Amino acid sequence: MHNQPQLFHPQAEAALADQELRANFRGAMDYLRDKRQAAFTDPDEEAAIRDRAEAIRRRCLSKLPALLEQLEANCIANGIRVHWAEDAAQANAIFTDIIQSHGGTLAVKGKSMVSEEIELNHQLTKEGISCLESDMGEYIVQLGDETPSHIIMPAIHKNKRQVADLFAEHVPGFEHTLDVDRLIQTGRNVLRQKFREAQVGISGVNFAVAETGTLCLVENEGNGRMCTTVPEVHIAVTGIEKVVELLADVPPLFSALTRSATGQAITTYFNMISGPRKDDELDGPKEVHLVLLDNGRSQAFVDEEMRQTLQCIRCGACMNHCPVYTRIGGHAYGTVYPGPIGKIISPHLMGLEATRELPTASSLCGACGEVCPVRIPIPHLLQRLRREAKQEPRPGVPALRGQGAAKSKLEAFVWRSFGLLTSKPALYRLLSWCATRCRSLIPAKLGPWTRCRTAPKPAARTLRVLMAERNK
Amino acid sequence: MSTARNAILNRLRQAGAQPLPVNNPDYPLWHPDSPAEPLDKLTELLEQNHAEVLRLNRHELVTTLRAHIEQAALKHIATGTGGEFLAEITRALAGCAEQRPFNQPLEQWKDELFDRVDAGITGCHGAIAATGTLVLWPGPAEPRTLSLVPPSHIAILKASTLYTNLPAMMADQGWAKGIPTNLLLVSGPSKTADIQQTLAYGAHGPKRLLVLILEDA
Amino acid sequence: MSSAIRIYPAKPDKVYVYATCLVDMFSPQSGLDAIRLLELAGVEVIYVPKQTCCGQPAYSSGYEDDAKTSALSQMALFPKPWPVIVLSGSCGGMMHHHYRRLFAGGKNEQEVNQFCDRVFELTEFLVRVCRIRLQDRGPATSVVLHTSCAARREMKVHVTGRQLLSQLDQVELREQAYESECCGFGGTFSVRHPAISEAMVQDKTRHLNDTRAAQLISADWGCLLNINGALEYQKQEMKGIHLASFLLGRLEGDHA
Fold first, then answer.
1. Which of A226, A240, A275 sits opposite B148 (nearest CB)?
2. pTM
3. Which of A182, A195, A395, B175 could pair with B170 as two cysteines, CB 3.0-4.6 Å apart?
């Protein structure tokens, strides 16, 4: 059983208590932050590329239904078959049908968070199809029967010793080593066999270009190319929001993505797929399929403010810079997408009932919004979700799945009283006077606050009193 | 799944989003880097990304290629069945390595390509200086796995096909009007930092990338 | 789109001061010192005794209607077109940015926006409007500065506190590791997620202590309540004071 968002508190506490995990994340986040910083040395250029990336994503979302139809038409014209899925079950059924129609028993998969979202590996296994992760990080995670703890560095929670231990347990003939080159070669050798055996290759999509019917994939390892080139069938799966209007939209988004994610000017490979193998070609898949998945995205889309959530290009910079993610790591969230972006997308994918704690797990420090390459106002959206979790639907505002799930009469009373207190100076004066009079009576233990702090002590006299004396 | 299609599109349409224009005056344009010395920049960045770069003139191609193959002890080399440099490649290989032209569908020699072939040689459609990137344009004469499956990839690039940045190349060549089934940008040998942020080369694709830049071509 | 660059007015004759509820209750001396500092900068300071709280706790907890009640009552206290100087980046962010959002599209949107335009954080106002020049009369010392996330990222005034300190000849500003990282306060976050908040404040206090600076300063009492509480709990010698108190001490030469 993997983690769940409903158990966020105990999962976070367990992660905080694991010193090795904490050290792994701190080290990894420091590395990724430094890399990003080195990739944006000129603040004006950083601002310009973020402006451009935001403008493109906003524009593409503003025409989303039309672009999806255009993408579909151009993919079909290129020989790519297009499928639509409302939810995980439909998407998995599409995969199963395609793979079984080819008598497939082994699929190799490149990195795809959407496939994690629909729990594709698990569902295919139930149908007798093994689906092997081929991204090194994903492969490590799959060997350990875990889920990714970061959207671009899936095995970031493990250090090399832990990876070596895992290989020793699962890879026949592996000689224990802490040499990363040899660890990678071990993975390479295992997976190389699988690339040639697999009947089906599965991938995600970074950008789906409506204008040309092209699927773009960003990677460094080459496993994505293997999955989309060597097996006879390639199935790509993507969220409906990943469509871009023009081929010319791709370079700025690609640059914003790689620089924000890993601080690279460009990744080793950029793979642009515009159709299956042609009659005169000698390699490449004979069939290419594209699965377009909604799974709650249209809920975010119909609300103009929350639509901004869908601008995300999945770079992971928000988690790399998040003080909460840095300390608890990705698994504690119990969602496929962890960290700040996870807190604002997961309520749409899973409902607010299950995810109601997530938007509160932020000090609203704003570090995420400050680095987001498409300028998603993540703190605002967290704030908005906190509100929707607490309140009944309002007229003119589309209700969310699980709207009002965190409603509390006591809390509503507390904040109603707060509003009253702060708007009635006489009442406020009385209360603050009492607090200063009774300052010696403040208990030393004040619930969660004093688990690591002393209790705050009011001053003997308030500023208002002192000012009254000063002005006498 | 046309019901899913219609349901999704209907929900999206009901949002009534107002389409924004392509040239939105609210946002400034992005000007990608345009290096002043594009060939030097390309070389520098490729080398930074662990590729080996040799700059030469076309008449030196055969001898340079042969010297590299001998020095790297490459024995079985996959090539295309066409392309501008095939004659020179064939001459370079003659007597020093076995040439395996990619003249049959992948399925028919998958094992050999995966297990026996030491290197694949391809031309390049062009390159991009700003990011240190080769542009590969695979097709029947130079299939896509030539640059992917063998542990070494040797790429031959004409300096005259170099562009300063990707948007310039895309626009100038009208990519939006037609690109091959699998257009590839390659900026170094395969790599990963997935284990404790430690960079390792040859994750799944080639461990070595040699770029031969023909300065006079 | 990136937020527009703020254009600053010429130095006015009069300003309002918004001390914030935390200063009122927990550190009134910071309020007195800030007012004195503003007076030394050459402006007349109007303190409205009816001020209470900006409403941020309700706002960040998802209770926007209750936050609006607070916000309306506060805005009504400052009717004249004078700048409102807030002694906290966090409350400043609430009043300069979030009030706009709370009342966007409403009938009083324009008035609210005009109010928000008048809101300045203290260090921002001293540096960018008053263009204050400080004469250091204190002995040589070292300080470490904690800037709140709201001052840094909402008000974008993380440089002004440093600029003020840099005018003091005898004060060495020490840099802590992870300077821009949150201290873990976040208002209700610190009690709703106490374990995470604890991990954050423990790291923050360690990084501050590691500088071995003689004095910790911040221009935000929210952060100070958190950091000082943790420092005291750990029985550390370091204790933070408000930047205004520190600056005033240097000008008057009576603080060590």
1. A226
2. 0.96
3. B175
